[in-house]
What we know:
- The chain has 311 residues and is an alpha/beta fold.
- The protein has helices spanning 21-28, 30-45, 72-87, 115-131, 142-163, 200-209, 213-234, 246-249, 254-265, 278-282, 285-298, and strands spanning 11-18, 53-58, 61-66, 90-92, 95-97, 101-108, 137-139, 168-175, 182-190, 240-243, 272-276, 301-304.
- The strands form 3 sheets. Strands 2-3-1-6-7 form a 5-stranded mixed β-sheet. A 5-stranded mixed β-sheet has the order 8-9-10-11-12.
Amino acid sequence: MEMLDNHNSVGAVMFLDLDNFKEINDSLGHDIGDALLVAVSTRLQNHIKATDTVARLGGDEFGILMNNVGNPDNTAHITQNIIDSVLKPIEVDGQMINTSVSVGITIFPTDGNRPSQLLKNADIAMYCSKNAGRNTYSFFTNKMKNEFNFRKNLSEQLLQAIKTNQLEVHYQPLFNTKNKDIQGIEALVRWPSNTESGLPSVFIPIAEQYGLITSLSEWVIQKVCTDLHMIKSYIPNIKIAVNISPLHLRKKDFVESITSIINNAGINPKHLEFEITETAALYDLKTTIKKLHALRDFGISLSLDDFGTGY
């Protein structure tokens, strides 16, 4: 990192993160995952100069230090070549694995000189690439930093809101258009105490990004189960629909944690319907089908829906 002190040299720091590594690890095993990381590292090395450096930062994250890049256009060209290279199928232990990479880039000395600062900048830019749809790159800007700080602060507020029951579940009735009877109810989570950022379209993506979605979903299910005792006293055969995040569904202990919440609440699972997106249902199809069968056998109804649009 000595080059960072040379203000006459324009360099770049990249932060790279594989987009679906956890899923590969969970479905194919850690040995395959480790071999994939080695293969990706080799592909990264093939696209940089001998004087540049590739390092694994941890998990599925890599860093690249490049010197004398000339201008951002050169860096963008190299980065796109890296992205295209990683996107090509990788053979590991006789299996063809498809993955992609999201990249954040910061330029020195323009964006700073301290290694910790540059890595943080590149990390922030990488998350912007994730939010932009993955398999792409982003250059760090101060606007990104402000947005990152906003999202991080909001995630901390959301965690406190979950812990201190600041959230609410609103119930939207579903009517039969012919006889006007209530056919069901949809549970919608709201954050009324946060008037500026309390919209589901804002805080649900935050929950997913910062690993809070399981806590949020379980809080909603627990609240619905509690409220069901009162609701079914008025509408005995009611069924309440709850949106399930794809990320929550992927948890290994998803079925066990859900059934435990329902059993502890003393609720008949026939009163619940889980709405799951088509994308979530298609992920790791064999495992997902097994989980859905377990939920159905437990007594929960299932339906396909677009998660987040009405959550």
